Amino acid sequence: MKLVVVESPAKAKTINKYLGSDYTVLASYGHVRDLPPKDGSVKPDDDFAMTWEADAKGAKRLSDIAEAAKGADQIILATDPDREGEAISWHVLEVLRKKRGLKDIAVQRVVFNAITKSAVTEAMKAPRDLDMELVEAYLARRALDYLVGFTLSPVLWRKLPGSRSAGRVQSVALRLVVDREIEIEKFRTQEYWTVEADVSAGGDPFTARLAKFGGKRLTKFDLGDEAAATTARDAVRESQFTVTALEKKPARRSPPPPFTTSTLQQEASRKLGFSAQRTMQAAQKLYEGVDIGGETVGLITYMRTDGVQTAPEALDEARDVIGGLYGAPYVPEKARIYSTKAKNAQEAHEAIRPTSLARNPGRMRLDPDLGRLYELIWKRMIASQMESARLERTTIDMETSDGRIGLRATGQVVLFDGYLAVYEEGRDDADDEEGGRLPIVHEGADARVAEARADQHFTEPPPRYSEASLVKKMEELGIGRPSTYASVLGVLRDRGYVRMEKNRFHPEDNGRLLTVFLESFFRRYVEYDFTADLEEKLDLVSAGDLDWKVLLREFWNDFHAKTEEVSGLRTRDVLDELNNVLAPFLFPQVSEGADPRVCPTCGTGHLSLKTSRFGPFVGCSNYPECRYTRPIGQQTEGDAPSGDRELGTDPVTGETVFLKSGRFGPYVQLGEGEKPKRSSLPKGWSAPDMDLEKGLRLLRLPREVGLHPEDSQPITAGIGRFGPFVLHAGTYANLPSADEVFDVGVNRAVALLAEKRAGRAGRGEANALKDLGAHPVDGAPIKVLSGRYGPYIKHGSTNANLPKGTDPQDLTLEEAVKLIAEREAKGGGKKKPAAKKAPAKAKAPPKTTAKVVKTKSPAKKATARKKAPAKKVADA
């Protein structure tokens, strides 16, 4: 019997069918061991010795593999064909050696790029030894990530409370997001106008832009206001034009290569709206196998790759499919050969492609995500082997007879669509547009203006990163590797350093503070060039050109010394440095000549950055006499020192609507009475973007959505302490965004309320607002629950209230553990029934035994008193 070890059960099931009864295929379920999440798992003083540990599930699977190995004639390690796959095989082999489960059994490594019967059976004919250079590259990368995280994070906890962690790659990715935000904040918009006309010149209509007016060529800002633009628009409407010049430049556009991991993530984001994680999950399923006609088949080749090359048999198949579907003109004379850009050829595998192009996506029924992603991969592979598109880049100039007004249209005429018949690559915001497609026109033809319009524009800052553009930027800079992008971006979101709005990365305040802290005190380690250089050295390790421990020593010596230096700084020194670097952000100049750091409440205190276990804020130096505080980043240019400004007048009441800044953030207020109506800005709404319309919408809340169809009781929608909600008969159901409060309908509200009630009935406990994870001491789950009197933390039998004003969604595991400990120190948690009820149940002794009771009773009571505290400590 031959034992085959793979990662996933789905992969094991598929391969087992291909290999037959002589083979036993077992899954390791991914990595079987990891470094324990505690200090000391990597020992720099012991030549970087590493301690590995399997969790309970991993240990059980390793035992199963070891047991199966006892009766095997041969062990075949068939994990994925990349660095991580090589590492999993190494871990399995190391455990089997320690369990002495190998004896004289031959151990071999096989890899296959696709899970098809032919690929698997061919791979079994070409076994090899474990590639220790790839394993050492994995060990170096894992050690580096561990050393950075477990050395730097404690420094953050002490010097910058509220920060949760830092990472070798994640911190550099965060810096990209923060740097882009700073660019946007520094950008100053400028107004300009354009005039466009719908024109026809003997064929299909097209759009042209005013390029000449009053005999002068227009520049971008020549039409600077509405009056000038309106005058020009009216002149265009009243004029007759002739095509005076027609410039045609022939061009060829070649198809893009088939997908790599990063380009697949980028295109799935642009075209399908998939996150990187969602893309990789769907790709994993396509690779491991999908049931088609009763047979499990791997539909795509391995999805973690830097390579763009394709196997010769796949090229031949692609050409056959193209000829059959689109005809001979779409098949190029020779197959297209793409070369990889990967710096390490050992880690560059074949591009991502269908295992068989004959499996047309239109003829298969797949789950929605799998179907859409497979179609994208199929089209990209087909397009990569098609003939180039032939275009004419065309410029059409049209002028009036006196030459004082001119229009210009630019675009392209498609002479032969080639690969564009199948696929056109998506574009990022920053990509240059080549213009739309134009009809064929002739010089000297009359051009008739059907309509003209003047449009107002403002110059725009660079766009915030989407997942696609951030992945593209990281790849361009050489930061991280494609297989890690999904997890890196996920960590940034999970740690609360960024938030996603309209599929764009926005840095949170603690993310900005962390970046500035690292740039100020650990600048070298968040430099783009340094991080990319480290990746190149890791590639040298996997190529066998650099010893992995030499790399670790070079890094650790400098990094450890820097960490020790920063650890010796006072927290106040750190905050002073952040105050200076972040001054324009923390203390914006609101009026000329005024000191932006003077406290607006007491007038004598000095504003400064302060920290707490719930994160950073701006406070007055005269605390506790002056208790002025505000969240960081609330003041903006043009606001009064207190953050107040008028938004306008309520047309119903005639009262003024104000935007104000309070201790817990900005809010809107109606009028100035004794108890004016107020409403805080919901999460995701910024003070600079507030206007009268938005303010009135908030002040009109809660609003009645309609009547519930079951009992005709009203359903209301509003924004409360824990976010947007709908309410009916005492039941609250959360809404995903504040914007939905204003347009949610009855059907949507009824469905949300029904889900909430069904979930509550199924759980039999309070509604969970957030799952924080396992307690670091006993492993029991810690959750934030919604109680009758507000949210609270639950850990075993201990319930701890959240401090007033704390958003449950912002609470971290570390903060929860502290609150639980404080509650237990005060005697919180349920006592054991025996300890609590025993004294109450004691009955009066019979008179005949009174003397005996008197002599023994005190001893029993003393014993009880001594044991009770011990039980209490144990429970805590």
Description:
This protein has 23 helices and 32 strands. The protein has 876 residues and is of the alpha+beta class. Helix 5 (132-159) runs antiparallel to helix 15 (528-542), helix 5 packs parallel to helix 16 and helix 6 (170-186) crosses helix 14 (509-521).
Strand content: 15-25%
Question: Globular, elongated, flat, extended or rod-shaped: what is the shape?
Answer: globular
- The CATH class label of the domain at 140-179 and 481-572 is Mainly Alpha
CATH fold assignment of the domain at 140-179 and 481-572: Topoisomerase I, domain 2
Distance between the termini: 52 Å
Continuous helix count: 23
User: Considering the protein shown, what is the CATH homologous superfamily of the domain at 140-179 and 481-572?
Assistant: Topoisomerase I, domain 2
Low-pLDDT stretches are 635-643, 761-765, 830-876
Task: Please give the radius of gyration in angstroms.
Answer: 34 Å
Report the mean per-residue pLDDT as an integer: 83
**What would CATH call the architecture of the domain at 140-179 and 481-572?**
Orthogonal Bundle
Instruction: Please estimate the helix content.
Output: 25-40%
- Helices and strands: which structural class? alpha+beta
Overview in brief:
This protein is α+β, with helices and mostly antiparallel strands. Helices cover 37% and strands 21% of the residues.
Question: Can you give keywords for this protein?
Answer:
Topoisomerase I, domain 3; 32 strands; Rossmann fold; 876 residues; 21% strand; disordered C terminus; four-stranded parallel beta sheet; Topoisomerase I, domain 2; single chain; alpha+beta; six-stranded antiparallel β-barrel
